[in-house]
Amino acid sequence: MNAPRNLPGRDEDPDRLYTVTKGRSRPPEHAFDLVTLIVTEREAAPGMQSEHARILRLCATPTAVVEVAAELGLPVSVVKILLGDLLEAGTITARHPRFAPNKARLPDLDMLKQVLHGLQQL
Amino acid sequence: MVSNSSDTVVLAHRVPLRSTAENALKIVVVGGFGVGKTTLVGAVSEIRPLNTEETMTRAGEGIDDLSAVRDKRSTTVAFDFGRITLNDQHVLYLFGAPGQERFWFLWDRLFSGALGAVVLVDTRRLEESWYAIDRLEQHGTPFVVARNNFDGPAHTLAEVRAALDLPDHVPLVDCDARDRESSKQVLIELLRHLHRLAEAQRAVVEETL
To answer: Does pTM top 0.95 for this prediction?
Structure first.
């Protein structure tokens, strides 16, 4: 009935995703952006879930959520759940994007100048 | 003169960010299949473009629930990304996003908070860009349009602008997505556009104060 088969174009087995997240299906609400930078604060402990340990090794230097997902080969939403665990345990910190422009608010001029300058240096 | 070109040479599997990196920004490159999004991202990125995926439900807007995967109420979308270290604090992430109609439900979820977008167009298939341009305008996301000019222009940019029904204030430029300098200029064009918009907005705010 609901037996999972291969998703179109993907080989990920939903049951495996469930195992990784221990059955949880929702990430903490709005906790992480795709480009939130994750930084490890405490090294992996023995016996830790392997995905958690991999994240902690990966984020020894700041690493964006989306890069963690790509390196682990897991969907972003699954990675957000795992990151939620680590954040709660205090083993990582998160550096969130500092602004989110919207219809009413463009990024400030100083920020845009920094980005422009950085691009011109490429 | 400080040049960071030497430390962006990719030797190891992973090129780590600087430990001082603290604020990441997003720009989305949107366009039809095969138009050169990944090529453009790769041309300017300090890492080989990576690929990841997100699984989302259409129903019950904004619900991000893996249980939906099991009963197939979900869509999986794959996207590429690359990055550019701008300075000690700031990093820019570039996302190559599919422009087809069926993927736009996830725009808000994945790419909200983006500085802006580049619409990459192929003049042989301009109609593939109409929908993306329409959605960006509705969404209020600032954007520029870049024509990926593979083999010499068959049309003038004025003709392309007319065919896209693109308003005058939206920049339209030519580029070669394979070329680093050319792709970099597209991003600079977007930043200049954003700067003009932000200046205009500030002027309006000051007037009303």
So the answer is: no
